[in-house]
């Protein structure tokens, strides 16, 4: 299966934010709440990743609740790709 690098996922995350006039900071420690990245934005990012990979990722709600930073999102997507 094809996988996306953290940089590719980060770029997609930046596109989701840019569509709302927001900017993705360079710092992976940036809090999602501070940059305005909401659950709907995460859903859009997940759909873009799935479209790019042409596969469905299996999300679990408890794992989603622990996501607080840009880096957490990138790590979570990495883990989903490894599990598929």
From TrEMBL:
- PROSITE patterns, alphabetically? CARRIER (PS50075)
| Species per Swiss-Prot/TrEMBL record | Metallococcus carri
* Pfam families attached to this UniProt entry: PP-binding
Q: Which InterPro entries match?
A: ACP-like_sf (IPR036736), PP-bd_ACP (IPR009081)
Q: Where is the signal peptide?
A: none
Q: What is the lineage of its organism?
A: Bacteria, Bacillati, Actinomycetota, Actinomycetes, Micrococcales
Tell me which Gene3D superfamilies the record gives. Answer: ACP-like
- The residue ranges of the Carrier domain are 3-81
What is this protein's name? Acyl carrier protein
């Amino acid at each position: 299966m094809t996988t996306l690098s953290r940089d590719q996922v980060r770029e997609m995350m930046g596109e989701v934010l840019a569509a709302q006039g927001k900017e993705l900071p360079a710092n992976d420690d940036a809090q999602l709440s501070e940059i305005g990245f909401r659950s709907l934005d995460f859903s859009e990012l997940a759909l873009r990743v799935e479209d790019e990979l042409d596969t469905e990722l299996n999300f679990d709600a408890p794992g989603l609740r622990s996501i607080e930073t840009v880096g957490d999102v990138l790590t979570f997507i990495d883990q989903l790709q490894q599990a598929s």
